[in-house]
Design goal:
Strand content: 25-35%
GO molecular function: exonuclease activity
Keywords: DNA recombination, DNA replication, Endonuclease, Exonuclease, Hydrolase, Nuclease
Radius of gyration: 23 Å
Oligomer: single chain
Largest sheet: 6 strands, mixed
Family: Belongs to the SbcD family.
Protein name: Nuclease SbcCD subunit D
Shape: globular
Structural class: alpha/beta
Helix content: 25-40%
Order of helices and strands: EEEHEHEHEEEHEEEEEEEHEHEEHH
InterPro entries: Calcineurin-like_PHP, DNA_Repair-Maintenance_Comp, Metallo-depent_PP-like, Mre11_N, SbcD, SbcD_C
Strand order of the largest sheet: 6-5-4-1-13-14
């Protein structure tokens, strides 16, 4: 059996002010061809299918059209997509009634039975090769506060709750699987995951208390397909626990990530091969200059960029301009726009760093944050610290994240 692990599509994402429809369309076309070339039997999408809980009609249409093409072109293909923290569980599951005669499973919620017990069976999905069950998938979506069982102390500790959830669903799956392999999915922040220092796209989810150890995943699991962190990587030296990463760079901080999907081969009830496949880049991202420089050097670097040509059909690269200032410069943006007026680029971001100390080249640089770099929790922390002159307590962070999760899922 051949499986393909991907995650964090973020359909509908706006890259600063630019729509990314054609980039996502390019990726999905490539993905369909990859499914054919690699003879994929099961496609796993580990959360954040959409960028927002209320995606635009074009984003929904793009996803539904992909599903239609996939099941038409590959009738035996099994697709399992779980909700991430960016997804609305209700909206992700909405087309499921129309897919009952297919092998498509859209998992948004953790359901409970009449006795208020977690319905683990609804998340344990048989994986088929033809008409034969070869393995089972633990299709775990992003676990929101209250989705997991209480731990021994009966306290709402998120990491402990997630650990207990994976232990209980694995034990239940073992009784169903009858020695067949178990593959797990998840959308979470694993402790020790690597991200770029400048990557603000995926900050801590539950107020900084959500870090889940790799020991949360029982040893009976042969592969753990994770989403949420956009940098592709294996965790804790264990090749079978990994983030596939995002197929597109979702910020300039992700420009140098290896954007990929992961092919997994199951032979004789064992995971035998794990092979990352690079996703071809549709639209390049440029940072000019490579390091923050004063305005004069920045403008020189911009003027050296290639000019636009009428015959050039390549997508215009997204441009990030990195400027070092000693003081505010209101005319900076107009000078940059003038410098790139005939260049084969489109300005996405001006990254301004302020030098602390006019004559001190070693002084630290302070980032000038744009509004879209801030997360809701950052705004709350800044307001709280300004008003009460102390850090926001962790319990308030957890309560805020719980309230925000409820709003996004409604």
């Amino acid at each position: 059996m051949n499986l393909l692990h991907t995650a964090d599509w973020h359909l509908g994402q706006t890259f600063y002010q630019y729509d990314r429809y054609h980039e996502h369309e390019h990726f999905l076309n490539w993905l369909l061809q990859t499914i054919e070339n690699q003879k994929i039997d099961v496609l796993l999408i580990s959360g954040d299918v959409f960028d927002t809980a209320n995606p635009a009609v074009e984003s929904l249409r793009l996803f539904y059209h992909f599903l239609h093409r996939a099941i038409t072109r590959f009738p035996q293909l099994q697709i399992i997509a779980t909700a991430g923290n960016h997804d609305s569980p209700v909206r992700l599951e909405m087309p499921q009634p129309l897919l009952e005669d297919t092998r498509v499973h859209l998992i948004g919620h953790v359901r409970r039975n009449l006795q208020k017990q977690i319905d683990y069976d609804s998340l344990i999905i048989p994986l088929y090769k033809g008409d034969t069950i070869v393995a089972y998938c633990l299709a775990v979506p992003f676990l929101r506060l209250g989705d997991y069982p209480k731990n021994e102390e009966q306290t709402p500790n998120y990491a402990k709750g997630v650990t207990l959830f994976y232990n209980q669903i694995t034990q239940r799956a073992l009784t169903i699987a009858q020695d067949k392999p178990l593959i797990a999915m998840g959308h979470l922040h694993a402790t020790g995951a690597e991200v770029s220092d400048d990557d603000t796209a995926e900050r801590p989810i539950i107020g900084g208390i959500e870090g889940v150890q790799t020991t949360a995943f029982p040893t009976q699991l042969q592969y753990v397909a994770l989403g949420h962190i956009h940098k592709a990587q294996a965790l804790g030296g264990k090749e079978y626990i990994r983030y596939s990463g995002s197929p597109l760079p979702l910020s300039f901080a992700e420009r140098n990530y290896n954007h990929q999907v992961v092919c997994i081969q199951l032979i004789e009830n064992k995971i035998q091969h794990i092979q990352p496949l690079a996703v071809p880049l549709h639209t390049p991202l440029l940072s000019v200059p490579a390091q923050h420089q004063n305005p004069e050097k920045v403008l020189q670097a911009l003027q050296a960029l290639p000019e636009s040509a009428v015959t050039n059909s390549e997508p215009l690269p997204f441009l990030e301009v990195k400027v070092l200032l000693n003081e505010p410069s209101p005319e900076l943006k107009s000078e940059i726009l003038k410098a790139i007026g005939n260049k084969h680029v489109r300005l996405a971001r001006i990254d301004v760093r302020l030098q602390q100390g006019e004559n001190d080249a070693e002084a630290p640089l302070q980032s000038e944050l744009a509004l879209n770099d801030l997360q809701p929790i950052d705004v709350l922390k800044q307001i709280y610290e300004k008003k009460f002159h102390t850090s926001l307590p962790e319990r308030y962070e957890a309560l805020f994240e719980e309230a925000l999760a409820l709003v996004l899922s409604s």
